[in-house]
Amino acid sequence: MSADEETIRGDLGDDSYEAADQEGRALQDLVHASEPDIAEGELRLWFPEQL
């Protein structure tokens, strides 16, 4: 599975399902929420010191 170019995950992601499986670890993924209320929740979760 891969992300399309010119998307947040495609442009900034540097991990893959294959690499994570081979290394026996969780996928290092990016968080992206396009709806404002969902984005606010994600920002509070991951960047509480900046709000």
UniProtKB/TrEMBL annotation:
Domain of life: Archaea
Family annotation (InterPro entries): NDK-like_dom_sf
SUPFAM superfamilies, per the entry: Nucleoside diphosphate kinase, NDK
Protein name as catalogued: Uncharacterized protein
Protein's organism: Halorhabdus tiamatea SARL4B
